[in-house]
Write a structure and sequence with these properties.
This protein has 3 domains: 202 residues, 3-Layer(bba) Sandwich (FAD/NAD(P)-binding domain); 111 residues, 3-Layer(bba) Sandwich (FAD/NAD(P)-binding domain); 104 residues, 2-Layer Sandwich (Enolase-like, domain 1). 32% of the residues lie in helices and 23% in strands. The chain is built from 13 helices and 23 strands. Helix 1 packs parallel to helix 9, helix 3 runs antiparallel to helix 4 and helix 11 packs across helix 13. It binds flavin-adenine dinucleotide and nicotinamide-adenine-dinucleotide. Nicotinamide-adenine-dinucleotide binds next to helix 6 and strand 19. Its cofactor is FAD. Keywords: FAD, Flavoprotein. This is NAD(P)/FAD-dependent oxidoreductase.
Length: 447
């Protein structure tokens, strides 16, 4: 039996940041990982996705210049791009493992399963620790329909050696909308089938509709209000997708992008006395589970806060501080969310939809893409909706536009630190930059 101060189950962002902090403070720390070290974001999520999105984003920017200086759109050579993805992404896992071992962290390969309140087993070896952190993340959901075993998931898409001629995405959430944009730019015929009546719920309804319209203009087909009921593959390797509403689609590749579910199977949560539900592991305001020696961090938590890399990192760092003696409950600052569609969508703080139901809040839209100072980029759709409270403080914002991700980051300190107009006007920002122009515009509406 090996003893540790802290064992993290998982090695993604919800684990390794906190593990590193604790190890540097002299604690004996181990990470247990059954797949690739560094977890989803690094190996099968954000990093790989944004790399493959790069040329699609460039092409999208070039489209703004059609008729005003550029006529041709280059083609994406997918196999070359995929080779570059492997060159950049594949070494990251071993690189992180080496970095963590320099800090004295043991990395144990295999599946962890609790066998009791303070013990777990990996490959028949029992490990004991004072504290455990469950940071096992999520995995793709699987539709419960005939033919579900034929469907592909996000990890497989990010490994495609050739871009299929046609792809159907089931679901119109983050993954479908981001990957559909990439696949279309790489030449595939793309269809998105969504159960609800709109895509990208969680983002401003009007702006997400504009993204859908933009994607339709680029040749992507959408069908809303359709529940996929059956998938089959014929002898020519062509898929047939059918919906309960009677629609049929043919495609070379079909993706199940209907969400993600917590990795809590065969984890021995009952043996450890850890409560859970279908949203994940239940925690209190200290990220402690129903077993006081076991914490949970990242995507695996049953939580309302967005399941994103920065929130996983924040939670793991919080747990490290807590295990080093801090006694405060976790307090989240505002969390910006971005859909890396083309154009991009961003959301931070109170949403426009929630603000509409609260008479103390005011919504102010600035169609900044049409302002003279932004005309140089011809990104005419770029807009921001501000949510402002009774004290004339910024409490939320929704954005659409190619530079929305960078602009939303600039708004994070404005909201968290309750900046006034004077705070913003008292600073000098670089010019011409998006945030440098938008921040003073926003300041005009603040106290
Ligand atoms: C395609 C895709 C794109 C994304 N894009 C973005 C983005 O652009 N921006 C963003 O902020 N977020 C993005 N996300 C979400 C982001 O990846 C997650 O929020 C983040 O990875 C969560 O980190 P985590 O450490 O909680 O979980 P993970 O990174 O999933 O790590 C959990 C680890 O635990 C391991 N594990 C599970 N069970 C066991 C067990 N029993 N024993 C041992 N090991 C186990 C798993 O193998 C995994 O490596 C994306 C996700 C996907 C799928
Ligand atoms: N940019 C980012 O930050 C980013 C990118 C990708 C993924 N992620 C993370 O991954 C998570 C999962 O993403 P996702 O896109 O898989 O899920 P999602 O929850 O964003 O979207 C799933 C969609 O599938 C639809 N759906 C469900 N069942 C259906 C059915 N039977 N037929 C048709 N449609 C159906 C839902 O209505 C929903 O719109 C996100 O919530 C987020 O935490 C984040």
């Amino acid at each position: 039996m090996t003893n540790y101060d802290v064992i993290f189950i998982g090695s993604g962002h919800a684990a390794w940041h906190g593990a590193q902090t604790l190890a540097r403070e002299g604690k004996k720390v181990a990470l247990i990982e059954e797949n690739k070290v560094a977890g989803t974001c690094t190996n099968f999520g954000c990093n790989a996705k944004i790399l493959l999105d790069g040329p699609a984003e460039l092409i999208h920017h070039l489209h703004h210049y059609h008729g005003i200086g550029i006529n041709d759109t280059p083609n994406i050579i997918w196999p070359e791009l995929m080779a570059y993805k492997h060159q950049v992404i594949d070494p990251l896992s071993d690189g992180l493992a080496r970095m963590l071992s320099v800090d004295g962290i043991d990395i144990i390969a295999g599946h962890a399963e609790f066998t009791g309140q303070q013990t777990l087993i990996v490959n028949h070896v029992v490990y004991q620790a004072d504290k455990f952190v469950i940071a096992t993340g999520q995995k793709p959901a699987k539709l419960a329909i005939p033919g579900a075993e034929l469907l592909h998931d996000s990890t497989e898409f990010l490994e495609l050696s050739e871009m299929p001629n046609s792809i159907v995405f089931i679901g119109g959430g983050y993954i479908a909308m981001e990957f559909a944009s990439i696949a279309r730019a790489a030449g595939s015929q793309v269809t998105v089938i969504e159960y609800g009546d709109h895509a990208l719920s969680g983002f401003d309804r009007e702006y997400s509709q504009e993204v859908v319209e933009d994607m339709i203009d680029r040749g992507i087909h959408f069908d809303f209000g359709q529940r996929v009921s059956h998938v089959a593959l014929d002898e020519k390797q062509k898929y047939l997708v059918e919906t309960a509403q009677g629609k049929r689609y043919n495609a070379d590749y079909v993706m199940d992008t209907t969400g993600r579910v917590p990795n809590i199977d065969n984890l021995g949560l009952k043996a450890a006395g850890v409560e859970y539900n279908k949203g994940g592991v239940v925690v209190d305001d200290y990220l402690r589970t129903s077993n006081p020696n076991i914490y949970a961090s990242g995507d695996v938590i049953a939580k309302a806060i967005p399941r994103l890399t920065p929130t996983a990192t924040f939670e793991s760092q919080y747990i490290a501080k807590k295990l080093s003696g801090d006694s405060d409950p976790i307090k989240y600052p505002v969390v910006p969310s971005i859909a890396f569609t083309l154009p991009r969508l961003a959301q931070v703080g109170i949403s426009v939809d929630d603000a509409k139901n609260d008479e103390r809040l005011r919504i102010q839209e600035i169609p900044y893409g049409q302002l003279m100072r932004f005309q140089t980029l011809n990104d005419v759709k770029a807009k921001i909706k501000l949510v402002i409270d009774q004290d004339k403080k910024l409490v939320g914002a929704s954005l659409i536009g190619d530079f929305a991700p960078e602009v939303v980051n600039a708004l994070v300190p404005v909201i968290n630190n309750e900046y006034t107009s004077r705070d913003i006007h008292g600073q000098i920002f670089a010019f011409p930059t998006h945030s440098g122009i938008i921040l003073p515009l926003i300041a005009n509406y603040l106290a």
